[in-house]
């Protein structure tokens, strides 16, 4: 076998490892929080990747956002609606790449990414700290937090914090390694091992794990993955998807600020599903205004 072929095979294997370690943590996390088996989300990830790999390269639709679309839509409307919405979302992103005029700094996109991070943080903080709050949107969850008070499970907080530190620091300290094996995968693996030592199978555990959290049955060691770890994977992933330069650019003009505020407030107030729909309408309106302003400027020039 020639050296070139060996390099090609090696590159292909490394890409598979990267894809596997990138998709698996988010698929587990999304599956847990709406009660579906993890392999369903791996299949959904394949659908997402078919349409969004190129879009992700252009910073239009990170793969992580696709998991959230499935997660929240399936929770509100069922798995069929979730898959259809993901499919349409992916097609829209692919079509968007070929539009003759596009505005990459749309305030709607930056508002939606920020609203996503805030929504995920509010909804999943209860699993990170083990508070036991419940709610389907930000308003309900905040109300639940206020009524229950703050009574964290400190061992769960330890697991979640370890995940947070690894996801933030490892890609910077071990950049080359984390380009192949993704930080969320490493973080879940480390906290799983730690949980096995601190909470042996024959010992009653106060930590919420996949085995006593999910309504579906998993096999073997998978059941011992701590839920706080999966919650933090989603939270940190959401904030990593926020592009702060684009958020800053949203404040460049009055009409951009107005669109930004309407998008983020509607997502937080009405919920993620309705926020997606409202933001989509706002994006169309903003795109029309943007094109008209560009046409007007070119005519003046």
Description:
The protein is mostly helical and 301 residues long. It has one domain (3-300). It contains 14 helices and no strands. Helix 1 crosses helix 2 (38-57) and helix 5 (107-129) runs parallel beside helix 13.
Secondary structure layout:
Blueprint: H1 3-34, H2 38-57, H3 63-77, H4 79-96, H5 107-129, H6 138-148, H7 154-173, H8 175-178, H9 183-198, H10 210-213, H11 227-240, H12 244-249, H13 254-270, H14 272-300
Helix pairs in contact: 1-2, 1-3, 1-9, 1-11, 2-3, 2-4, 3-4, 5-6, 5-11, 5-13, 5-14, 7-9, 7-11, 13-14
Structural descriptors:
mainly alpha, 76% helix
Subunit arrangement of the protein: single chain
Element pattern in H and E: HHHHHHHHHHHHHH
Percent helix: over 70%
User: Which structural class best describes the helix and strand composition?
Assistant: mainly alpha
Rg estimate, integer Å: 21 Å
Major β-sheet profile: none
Instruction: Give the low-pLDDT segments.
Output: 57-61
Mean of the pLDDT scores? 76
Number of helices: 14
Please report which band the strand proportion falls in: under 5%, 5-15%, 15-25%, 25-35%, 35-45% or over 45%. under 5%
Q: What's the count of strands?
A: 0
Count of all domains: 1
Shape: globular
End-to-end span in angstroms?
61 Å
């Amino acid at each position: 076998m020639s050296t070139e072929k060996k390099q090609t095979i090696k590159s292909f294997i490394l890409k598979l490892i990267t894809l596997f370690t990138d998709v698996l943590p988010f698929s587990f996390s999304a599956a847990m929080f709406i009660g579906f088996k993890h392999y369903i989300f791996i299949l959904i990830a394949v659908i997402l990747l078919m349409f969004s790999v190129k879009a992700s390269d252009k910073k239009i639709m990170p793969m992580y956002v696709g998991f959230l679309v499935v997660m929240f839509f399936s929770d509100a409307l069922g798995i069929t609606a979730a898959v259809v919405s993901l499919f349409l979302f992916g097609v829209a992103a692919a079509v968007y790449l070929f539009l003759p005029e596009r505005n990459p700094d749309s305030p709607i996109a930056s508002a939606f990414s920020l609203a996503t991070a805030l929504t995920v943080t509010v909804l999943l903080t209860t699993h990170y700290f083990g508070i036991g709050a419940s709610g389907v949107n930000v308003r309900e969850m905040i109300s639940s937090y206020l009524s229950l008070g703050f009574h964290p499970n400190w061992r769960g907080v330890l697991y979640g914090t370890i995940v947070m530190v690894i996801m933030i620091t490892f890609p910077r300290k071990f950049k080359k390694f984390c380009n192949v094996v993704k930080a969320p995968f490493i973080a879940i693996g480390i906290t799983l091992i730690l949980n096995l030592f601190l909470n042996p199978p024959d010992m009653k555990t106060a930590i919420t794990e996949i085995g006593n959290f999910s309504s579906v049955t998993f096999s073997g060691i998978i059941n011992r993955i701590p839920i706080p770890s999966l919650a933090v994977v989603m939270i940190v992933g959401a904030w990593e998807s926020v592009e702060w330069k684009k958020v800053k650019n949203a404040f460049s003009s009055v009409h951009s600020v107005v669109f930004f505020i309407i998008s983020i407030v509607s997502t937080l107030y009405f919920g993620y599903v309705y926020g997606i729909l409202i933001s989509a309408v706002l994006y169309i309106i903003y795109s029309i205004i943007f094109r008209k302003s560009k046409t007007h400027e070119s005519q003046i020039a």
